[in-house]
Sequence to fold (134 residues):
Amino acid sequence: MSPENLALAEHAAMSYAASTSPGGPTDEDINKVTTWPSTVKSAVVASTTRGQALKLMDAEIPEDSNRPALAILLSGTFTDYDSTGPATKGKANEPVTGSYALLIYDPELNLITDMSVGDRPLDLNSFGAVTILR
Fold:
């Protein structure tokens, strides 16, 4: 993983985390995020493929699953206001919340292609070397 790709992935993860924080930045200000929000306790990243990272999410594996990707695992408190969860505990269609966020970053496209928020801890060590971001 190149230092440039690592820096871009870290900024994308910071921006995502900020957007899940109460009172987070507006869409216009999201690219101005330069620090981790206090809701993030830790952040780690590992090189993998999109398909391998999607397996951690128990997601459907698309045709482009062999694309190089960075799996970024955040721990803390997250509320994904852009997603809604299934009807559980009487909270149908409310934003998804959780203690972990897994982001799949495509360095070639410079964007987060997939994300998942939940309460299940995940382990990126099966991908090889893990770099601590926070």
The radius of gyration is 14 Å. The CA atoms of residues 21 and 78 lie 7 Å apart. The mean pLDDT is 85.
